[in-house]
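Weekly structure sync, notes
Attendees: PL (lead), two postdocs, one rotation student
Agenda item 3: pending single-chain targets
PL asked that the sequence for the first pending target be pasted directly into the notes so everyone works from the same version. It is reproduced below exactly as submitted, 355 residues in total.
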Amino acid sequence: MEWERFDLNPRIITAVKKANFRSAKEVLCVSGPDLQRLTRLSKTDVHRLHYAVAAAVRRSEPATALQLVRGECPVLEAGHRLSFACPVLDGLTRGGLPLRGITELAGESAAGKTQICLQLCLSVQYPQENGGLGSGAVYICTEDSFPIKRLRQLITQQPQLRADLPPALIRSLRFSDNIYIEHASDLEALQTCVSRRVPVLLKRGLVRLLVVDSVAALFRSEFQADEALQRSRHLLAFSNTLHRLSHQYGAPVVCVNQVTDVVDGPNPGRCDYGLVGSKVLPALGIAWANQVMVRLMLRRLTGRVQSDSRSSAPRKLEVVFAPHLPRASCLCGVWEEGVRGIPDGHSELQPHTSS
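Predicted structure, written out during the meeting:
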């Protein structure tokens, strides 16, 4: 490490070398009191050392609150969200998806998870004043082939779903040209995609949304039950890549997750993650749960709900945990134009049970 390149007193540099610090990262990982003890420097000198090292390694200049209010930092939009293109769903999530961090959407097969992801891929292309980010999306498939027919149907039905927007605005967007589809058949292909190809699109401003459908498929198929440690290491490396991309480019990351059955142990009825009474849990365990900022669960219920003389199987979208959201849920349905929330006032519906 060339400590001489830092703007520091030679006396401080000499003390750092004697303490055998080889990199700036090592210095930043040590607390002030411990750094004083190891280098025998004063508190003031240690503060100067920390400040100089941090200033040298940071990738971007810090932003003030005034800059955020004025909109001078487009990557750090204060309070902006990616809309679900539905007032009810946006109300549940206080505006939609946060721009930074991983949002997980978990649920059983046929619950409607892919439907929501496709809708987000269209919503992200609208201007910010209309709940979007004015950019495209990357959709990574790890299980089934991409549902291109359903996407085309959603595109043609945008005037019905977004009736609040000017038709000229909807017609001006070339939705299909701004969705980049990737297929990953193994973990190596998945990691290559998110670490090499996706950053190129983000850097060029072509996309601002990343969807992985699903994150559990490959991690569950490529590791045996006795390889939990190896799986956790690969899972953490993958999530670290997603977090870095999301925070660097202000791009929401949506990961679809499978679920596993709850096996009753010594404490029957126990259910982790606050899902009391649920018979399923999101897959990949606590190692993955700790990487998720927002966890949503989608469940298919029995019965039918009506909208404009049309019926749909009802779904329940639930906020399991999030740093900025309370535990809450809403009903929604899947129609030809997309996923729309169902306002309060409908009769209570029983959970769907599979045979």
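Discussion points:
- The domain at 72-342 is CATH 3.40.50.300 (Rossmann fold).
- The longest helix spans residues 228-249.
Action: rotation student to compare against the earlier draft before next sync.
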